[in-house]
Design brief:
Blueprint: H1 10-22, H2 24-30, H3 42-56, H4 63-72, H5 81-91, H6 98-126, H7 132-147, H8 158-173, H9 186-192, E1 200-205, H10 211-224, E2 229-234, H11 239-251, H12 255-260, H13 265-279, E3 282-286, H14 293-307, E4 311-315, H15 328-346, E5 350-355
Parallel strand pairs: 1-5, 2-3, 2-4, 4-5
Helix pairs in contact: 1-2, 1-3, 1-5, 1-6, 2-6, 2-14, 3-4, 6-7, 10-11, 11-13, 14-15
């Protein structure tokens, strides 16, 4: 009887690695849950392990750096040389589907794990010298080990949290210090304690009441006064519109004067000074319209990795897309949950604007 081939998808493994060699975002998308041992073909697992090493050292990931690292470890010949790596790059025209490829690789690995566990469980069950309670316990453990493959433990003993909790309480007791990033509005800071790490804050209001202006003012305060690294995802307004508004807020020059160019020499000088002030900040603006929650997550991860990140602003919730096709309500709920997960993952506050119905 011919033995069945274990579940695997070599093409998905190769396409994933190829994606990583053309775009670091592909590594960011899967590195948190995909392990080298999930690859069926040994050489693909070796390549992925070395990609992770480059990634964790914040080094460039391309054919040259990867080949050099493999050569230093005397693994280049084992994986098929530079020719194989070049073939992997040639396989994929885009890295857009990297996360899906990673999911296929992980699913195949889980199926192989279950097959192996079932064989072990069968052997245990046939061994009548082992008490059934022991068999049941060991069987459950084998299945659990497969389910937990690639999942990192997040358990922290309470004693490790006590010092941090006490320091937070001390800071809260100081009237001049907030636990989080200041909103720029004293009364609001008193209510919220500032923007807290891992929190998703929803700023909801009807159209045309100033949600974006308020969010920009908060972002400006975080960057210019608190000296934080901030990102503003604008799904509605362009980068030019955002910048003109920020310049007006900081300089005190009416927004319409900046847009129309009706400026006196004195105001032009003031505007030049304002530009210098903004040049010293760490503000990042992304104005891609109709973004998917996965796109924003990937961009935020990359920004934090490369430049650091303290707070995220999103304008606005209803213009984002999720995976749910059942209804728009469910899709918005999915996007909201995705932003909450992002805040927790990156340990930064997220302020998301939300449009309320005029009704």
């Amino acid at each position: 009887m011919t033995e069945k081939v274990p579940p695997q998808n070599i093409e998905a493994e190769q396409s994933l690695i190829g994606s990583m060699l053309i775009d670091k975002d592909a590594v960011i998308a899967v590195s948190g849950w995909l392990m080298p041992e999930h690859f069926y073909e040994e050489r693909n697992g070796i390549i992925y392990a070395n990609i992770l090493e480059l990634f964790n050292e914040a080094l460039p990931i391309d054919l040259i750096t990867l080949s050099d690292l493999l050569k230093k470890k005397q693994q280049l010949t084992k994986i098929g040389g530079r020719t194989y790596l070049a073939d992997l790059v040639a396989m994929v025209p885009t890295s857009a589907h990297a996360e899906e490829y990673g999911g296929i690789v992980k699913e195949s690995a889980t199926r192989r794990g279950l097959i192996g566990a079932s064989r072990d469980i069968t052997e245990l069950a046939f061994n009548e010298s082992i008490k059934i309670d022991k068999v049941m316990d060991e069987s459950e453990k084998r299945i659990f080990d497969v389910a937990q493959s690639g999942i990192k433990s997040n358990f922290v003993h309470i004693k490790d949290l006590l010092k941090e909790a006490f320091e937070r309480a001390e800071r809260a007791d100081n009237d001049e210090a907030y636990l989080g990033i200041s909103t720029g509005f004293k009364d609001l800071d008193e209510l919220l304690g500032g923007f807290q790490k891992s929190d998703l804050v929803i700023l909801a209001a009807r159209p045309s009441v100033g949600k974006t202006s308020l969010a920009l003012d908060m972002m400006r305060h975080a960057a210019m006064v608190e000296k934080k690294t901030v990102v503003f995802f604008s799904l509605e307004m362009s980068q030019t519109q955002i910048m003109d508004r920020l310049m007006g807020m900081q300089s005190g020059i009416p927004f319409w004067e900046i847009r129309t160019g009706r400026l006196t020499d004195k105001k032009l000088m003031k505007l030049a000074d304002t530009m210098g002030e903004f040049g010293d900040t760490n503000i990042y603006i992304d104005d891609q319209a109709g973004q998917h929650i996965n796109s924003i997550r990937t961009k935020a991860r990359r920004l934090k990795l490369e430049h650091g990140l303290d707070i995220i602003f999103v304008d606005y919730l209803q213009l984002m897309h999720g995976n749910s096709k059942e209804s728009r309500t469910l899709e918005v709920a999915e996007v909201s949950q995705g932003l909450k997960n992002l805040a927790k993952e990156l340990n930064v506050p997220v302020l998301a604007l939300s449009q309320l119905s005029r009704a």
